[in-house]
């Protein structure tokens, strides 16, 4: 549990690389050193602006839970293509550019066209997925695993889709996915999933974890004493 949480605090240097990323978004695409350095709108390092709000014809679709994962598919129109992409799960209807926008869960590729990417905001999960090559693609699918036993409310997948180096769109959204996770009360770690940048919750989690560590340490000490005495 402790190492799971530590990933939030591990410092990851933000590499500002401006290549074409023919082999997917860089490792640090979804990471950041300081919150205000976060690439929250998932914009590639290309020196051009996204084409939004021009129509694009790309669709982000979701299947049924099976039983623990959800199949996600990014699709171009029948005679169209994309070369690059980056997909994240986030809170439904939450603005892309909100600096405290959460990223949820873990992605797993289904074929050699995609690879998972860590996202710091994903609280220990592998919060994103990207392409591995710049061949023309009409469709790509992968699986998403929500964090276990957290009620996330409504979730939406959000994509950055790159057709060519100077032609890409951000904020391509799936329909809402509802009923994710159990419907009971949110544990403290779930609260952190829902509000990963809330320093009050972060401090409370750190306090509970260090308390837990101390208790474990004391128990071990007592066991040792019991063995020595016996
Ligand atoms: C999607 O989820 C958001 C946030 O829970 C909600 O406000 C909105 O009404 C939902 N939209 C649809 C179409 O269900």
From TrEMBL:
Cellular component (GO) terms are:
extracellular region; membrane
PANTHER family, alphabetically?
CELL WALL INTEGRITY AND STRESS RESPONSE COMPONENT 4-LIKE-RELATED, CYTOCHROME B561/FERRIC REDUCTASE TRANSMEMBRANE
Compartments, as annotated in UniProt: Secreted
Its domain of life? Eukaryota
| UniProt record similarity statement | Belongs to the insect defense protein family.
Q: Origin organism of this chain? A: Mytilus galloprovincialis (Mediterranean mussel)
Is Secreted among this UniProt entry's keywords? yes
Q: Which GO terms describe its biological process?
A: defense response to bacterium; innate immune response
Q: Which InterPro entries match?
A: Ferric-chelate_Red/DefProt, Reeler_dom, Reeler_sf
**Signal peptide, first to last residue:** 1-20
UniProt keyword annotations, A-Z: Antibiotic, Antimicrobial, Immunity, Innate immunity, Secreted, Signal
Which residue ranges does the record assign to the Reelin domain? 15-196
Q: What is this protein called?
A: Reelin domain-containing protein
Segments passing through the bilayer:
none
